[in-house]
Specification:
Helices cover 39% and strands 16% of the residues. By secondary structure, it is an alpha/beta fold. Strands 1-2-3-5-8-9-10-11 form an eight-stranded parallel beta barrel, surrounded by seven helices. A two-stranded antiparallel sheet has the order 6-7. Helix 2 runs parallel beside helix 3. The longest helix is centred in the C-terminal third of the chain and has 18 residues. It is globular, with a radius of gyration of 19 Å. The chain starts with a strand and ends with a helix.
């Protein structure tokens, strides 16, 4: 079954809430929220997807960028939607203690009746790590250890942990198991290998071209075969949409086995008022075949 989701970044909480309501009603499958905790006054760090097309022009984080807590925002979105899946693309787990993250994700997953797709990444903005007093070196290993702890916490049993970065005696976070899919992000060779080995799914970084997307997913699937992973491994691929893009253009991806696509919400969510933005998003849904696929009018 194919899916088509939306992603957004730099959106105010109220506008994201309106976007989510509209997306849920129109038949989009998911809303993915990007995140940063803060914007440094200046930074020299380069986003690792520099070789891939970036949707936003200029700096990814600057003084004008609206930043939100995606889990707090998704808790609000869960309360006003019924079927929309709630994705993070991506949550930098290494910036927080994993027990805090476990508490938040459990709450959102239960509040949303199982709709959270927890996208994680190792992070790239060194100045953000410095401001939060988290070592930038070792962030990949720290992220993997965070995910290990999260999976234990979601299991509903008591557990202790003795690792490289975190150590604590026996604790329990929840009286029952909570299933939370972990969606690894990143396009580099190391990121793809980690996603195939440790994740339940993968989401692309930046907006790869069609040819790049086919190649990235091919690498992931080869890694999955090598590691003995099961065939159920969604690959969420961001697709650039223009005024001319139609459902037929998206079908090319699906013909190559890329069934889970994500488009930038501002391809449709634009206009001076909420009513205008809703109307433009509805037009995009019609053009991409979203409402017809769901049987909506």
């Amino acid at each position: 079954m194919s899916t088509l989701g939306l992603c957004t970044y730099g959106t105010t909480p109220h506008d994201a809430l309106e976007l989510a309501r509209a997306a849920d009603e129109l038949g989009f499958d998911a809303l993915w929220l990007g995140e940063h905790v803060l914007h440094p006054a200046a930074y020299a760090s380069e986003h690792p997807s520099a070789g891939t097309r970036q949707h936003h022009s200029g700096p990814i984080v600057d003084d004008t960028t609206e930043l939100t807590d995606p889990l707090a925002l998704h808790a609000a979105i869960a309360a006003v939607t019924e079927r929309l899946r709630l994705g993070t693309a991506v949550y930098v787990t290494a910036l927080r203690h994993p027990l805090h993250t476990a508490r938040s994700t459990i709450t959102v997953q239960e509040l949303s009746c199982g709709r959270l797709l927890f996208g994680v990444g190792a992070g790239w903005l060194e100045e953000e790590f410095a401001a939060l007093d988290v070592p930038f070196a070792g962030r990949f290993s720290r992220t993997d250890e965070c995910v290990e702890i999260l999976r234990k916490a979601w299991g509903g049993e008591s557990f202790s942990h003795e690792g490289t970065f975190y150590r604590f005696d026996e604790v329990r976070l929840h009286p029952r198991p909570v299933a939370v899919p972990v969606v690894y992000g990143g396009n580099g060779p190391r990121a793809l290998a980690r996603a195939a080995r440790l994740g339940d799914a993968w989401i692309s970084s930046g907006t790869p071209t069609f040819e790049e997307a086919v190649e990235l997913v091919g690498v992931l699937r080869r890694h999955r075969l090598e590691t003995g992973g099961n065939a159920e491994f969604p690959c969420y691929v961001r697709v650039e949409v223009t005024e001319e893009t139609t459902a037929a253009d998206l079908e090319r991806y699906r013909e190559h086995g890329l069934d889970d696509l994500v488009v930038w919400a501002d391809a449709g969510w634009k206009g001076a008022t909420v009513a205008e933005r809703r109307a433009n998003l509805a037009a995009l849904a019609d053009r991409l075949g979203v409402r017809s696929a769901l049987g909506l009018r």
